[in-house]
Specification:
With about 675 residues, the protein is of the alpha+beta class. Among the domains are: about 5-175, Penicillin Amidohydrolase, domain 1; about 255-325, Aminohydrolase, N-terminal nucleophile (Ntn) domain, beta-sheet knob region (Penicillin G acylase, beta-roll domain, Roll), CATH 2.30.120; about 490-610, Orthogonal Bundle (Penicillin amidase (Acylase) alpha subunit, N-terminal domain). It is globular, with a radius of gyration of 26 Å. The model is unreliable at about 10-15 and about 170-180 (pLDDT under 50).
């Protein structure tokens, strides 16, 4: 239990907020799937209700997220959390938020943050036994902003860059690749019924701090939206309101730069900049680490140069610089997206330039579709190669300006009638000459395609017009394109001669007869699954070679066969025999393979089996009519992360069968269909 004084503080915070927010006036409606529909008079009231409802479903993850933002994760997780706490101090996130909070955030958004944090504090005070670390509370709005900045810095590659520096390998920034998300939209030029279609389909981890939570938020101040957010977010991150919707996929422009400083050999804390010696700023990062039940105070130095956070290593001294670390308004920008009523208002919110990355696919009831590879992209000196480690001794590499939004790759209302992104090149976002072009190579935009982009094109090509069933068929496709499109050629695996390699003839045959569809009952998909996990172990070599040789293909298949026989004593394994969707006591055969449109990525589970851990996560399919959106959605497991909840696993069977649930923004319908109605008290 919380000590009495801490409990009193939490209650005081809650009661103070209730002078303006009356929880008895906030309705939380749970539908038959447990999804919360939150109604209040004001936006802060709705945010209060969102915090309470999300805490009911996953208070543990929300708390761990806040611990990370407050640099307190090591107090709970021990050494495992210490690196994150150090990054928070190294990046000076608390100082940034403290400096900018009052001046940079709009008053109405600060009230929203206050409402959300009050909801969390009230829940903690009401449920003290669920509090993981008493020092988290009371949560403040600044705590929430700190965590959001940390998240966006990680999105920009800060954790990977720092790990590479500490590990002795400074990365090429172009090598940061994600495992995916899909987003696409069709306007009336491309649909048979004249409606506008939008597919929101993030491929996130299935659980944890960046797993999506579904909610419907509705106030009397013009906020009415259904979609998904992350733990600790006070609004929807992508979804649909009465007028419009948008979807995100992760993009990969150059969001972070690494510099090697020229150090004074006589004084290791001095570096040369424009011909003069400058001194590194030095601060102590106070870390509290739980070790063997004790909290040990550790003081670790954190350095800062003109470029930004700085690391001293045996190989040299390096700084990193990223736009994500220079703005605290990311959450506010998403809130503005939530409240937009048309493309003009959405574009105005986009021009805030606070979110450092993400592709955006937009659609609305006015028959508008739009795509942009969004980001905070620096204006860089073209005389330097920004894909490698940069010289940290000159103001020529010290960028301070960002490209305007209109300079980024984007397409508005193409004649083709569609826009799409599957984490591939933004220069292939629609058809032919209508694709965007950017001449500034320092932006570092990706130019690669992937299996999902190729399969999307392949499925769309024969369709003059798209009906809704076509739309769903594209989204739920588990088939690879006619020709694989991996970073290295794998065709050799499918060309081996069974008569030459009789010991693996069965696996060769399985691959040759496979239809390239990742269905759970497919033996070919089962073989390919085992092959891909074997290939992954040596991916660095194959990337360097750009292909898999015949001898390597044979070795891969022999290794895969050995794994099959060792764990299952047979090789005619269906994909569903190997790959499972697991939560609690429910274990289901799981379809899906890496980089298909309905993908799945897995980690070892038990007895040679694997369990899905990332892939086709939150799905929202929208048809816009003049009267508003028609919505279907699906989450992986269910609405709650609580093991004792009936909604812990109730969407799992729907998920593997690719079924959806009907959702609505209509208040009367929500109340009529309510399974549970209550106030956050």
């Amino acid at each position: 239990m919380l000590p009495k004084n801490i409990l009193v503080v939490c209650l005081a915070i809650s009661l103070q907020s209730q002078a303006q927010i009356n929880p008895s006036k906030i309705d939380i409606i749970r539908d038959k799937y447990g999804v919360p529909h939150i109604f209040g008079k004001t936006d802060p009231e709705v945010a209060y209700g969102l915090a309470w409802a999300h805490a009911e479903d996953d208070f543990e993850t929300i708390q761990q997220s806040l611990m990370a933002g407050k640099a307190m994760l090591a107090q709970y997780q021990g050494k495992k959390g210490a690196s994150i706490d150090y990054i928070v101090h190294l990046l000076r996130i608390p100082e940034l938020v403290e400096e900018r909070y009052e001046t940079d955030l709009a008053p109405d958004f600060k009230k929203l943050l206050e409402g959300y944090s009050a909801g969390l504090n009230a829940y903690a005070a009401k449920h003290p036994k669920e509090v993981l670390l008493k020092k988290i509370f009371p949560v403040t709005p600044k705590d929430m902003v700190q965590y959001s900045v940390l998240q966006l810095c990680v999105l920009s590659g800060a954790d990977k860059a720092l790990a590479a520096i500490f590990g002795g390998t400074v990365p090429l920034l172009e090598n940061y690749k994600t495992q995916g998300s899909n987003a696409f939209a069709f306007n009336s030029n491309k649909t048979t019924d004249g409606k506008v279609y939008l597919a929101i389909n993030a491929h996130q981890p299935l659980e944890g701090p960046v797993a999506f939570y579904e909610a419907h938020l509705s106030s009397e101040e013009g906020w009415n939206i259904l979609g998904a957010n992350f733990p600790g977010a006070p609004s929807i991150l992508h979804g649909v309101n009465e007028h419009l919707g948008w979807a995100h996929t992760v993009n990969d422009p150059d969001k972070l730069d690494v510099y090697q400083l020229e150090i004074n050999q006589d004084k290791k804390t001095q570096y040369k900049f424009d011909g003069k010696w400058e001194t590194l700023e030095e601060k102590v990062a106070p870390l509290k680490v739980k070790i063997a039940g004790l909290k040990i105070n550790i003081k670790k130095k954190a350095y800062w140069s003109k470029y930004g956070p700085t690391i001293i290593t045996d190989r040299g001294t390096f700084s990193i610089r990223m736009p994500a670390q220079m703005d605290i308004r990311g959450l506010e920008q998403w809130y503005r997206f939530n409240k937009a009523k048309n493309f003009t208002e959405f574009k105005a919110a986009l021009n805030m330039k606070a979110i450092p990355g993400y592709n955006i696919v937009y659609a609305d009831k006015y028959d508008t579709i739009y795509y942009i590879s969004n980001g905070r992209i620096p204006v860089r000196d073209k005389n330097y190669n920004w894909k490698i480690t940069l010289p940290g001794n000159t103001s020529a590499t010290l960028w301070n300006q960002l490209h305007p939004i209109d300079a980024l790759p984007q397409v508005l209302q193409p004649k083709s009638g569609f826009v799409y992104n599957t984490n591939h090149s933004p220069f292939h976002s629609t058809e032919g000459s209508e694709n965007p072009r950017v001449t500034d190579i320092t932006m570092g935009y990706e130019t690669l395609e992937n299996n999902r982009s190729k399969r999307f094109e392949e499925m769309l090509k024969p369709l003059n017009k798209v009906n809704y069933e076509d739309f769903k068929r594209i989204k739920f496709s588990r088939q690879f394109p006619s020709n694989f499109y991996f970073p290295y050629t794998i065709d050799t695996l499918f060309l081996l001669d069974e008569t030459k390699y009789t010991d693996i003839a069965d696996l060769i045959s399985n691959l040759k007869t496979w239809d390239k569809i990742g269905n759970a009952e497919s033996v070919g998909a089962g073989t390919f699954f085992m092959v891909t996990h074997t290939v992954y172990d040596n991916r660095a070599l194959y990337l360097k070679q750009k292909t898999i040789t015949e001898n390597q293909a044979v070795e891969i298949l022999r290794a895969a066969k050995n794994k099959m026989l060792t764990s299952f004593n047979r090789t005619n394994l269906q994909l569903g025999d190997i790959q499972k969707l697991v939560r609690g006591n429910m274990v289901l055969p799981l379809p899906g393979l890496p980089d298909v449109l309905a993908p799945m990525y897995s980690i070892p589970y038990k007895d040679g089996m694997y369990k899905g851990n990332q892939g086709d996560a939150y799905i929202e399919l929208v048809r816009f009519t003049k009267d508003g959106p028609i919505i279907e959605s699906l989450n992986v497991y269910g609405a709650s992360a609580r093991k004792n909840s009936p909604h812990y696993t109730d969407q799992m069977d729907m998920y593997v069968k690719q079924q959806t649930k009907t959702m609505t923004l209509n208040k009367a319908t929500v109340y009529q269909q309510a399974v549970k109605k209550y106030n956050p008290l």
